[in-house]
Amino acid sequence: MLHPHAVLAAAVATAVSAVAAAQEPVSPPRLFDVPVAPALRDGRLHVTAGLSHRGGGTVAIAAGLGGVAEVDIDLSDRLAAADEPRALHATAGFKLAWPGARTSAIPAAIAIGVRKSLAGQRDAVAQAFGIATIALGAVDLHAGIGRWAGDRWRPLAGVVWRTPRAPRTTLIADVAWAPELGRSEPAQWIAHWGARYRAFRWGAIELGVRHRAGRPFDGATVLLRVHAAVDWR
Length: 233
Known about the structure:
By secondary structure, the protein is mainly β. Helices cover 8% and strands 52% of the residues. Strands 1-2-3-4-5-6-7-8-9-10-11-12 form a 12-stranded antiparallel beta barrel. Strand 1 (44-52) and strand 2 form a beta hairpin.
């Protein structure tokens, strides 16, 4: 049986290779934790892979279906408890999106989706969410609600700023609520902030910081991620 971290290392290498084959700037299906409402275009395959300074990391593969739906598989440490920062958890997600009126003066989209643990995980989690995205010039606003099994509905929010002074750089922040693996407490807030740099026309590198409720500021996790997108048909 392959060790999850071996899978993660291989996935990072695959993502770097995929970057070389990508055709245009990438638009990730999520900020850090909060999903965006627009779905990937039909035939688009998006790969995200990265590592954290605590030895964990993430790899996610998402595919666009018809421009209105999206499926993904995600292996990540974002639900890891404080005493197991390297714990990786695999989930699968589905998102159904409505792009809104293309003639609108203010582009907007809405989406609903679900996420569930893959079979064989030590802990099982499930989430439902609804999210709206609105574009206001150089700023994208994301707001919605999400609910994990056994918890109540809680807010999701995020903001993206494409700074005119540095057109290749995007500043990102989001906040959501999520459980910790192996714990029975209600979901706690989890926040991210960072920057994405479009190093090439076809790929981006991202540096971020994760904070969780109940942990000191110096207990934050630093993330380094690579994004790539390819058209598979």
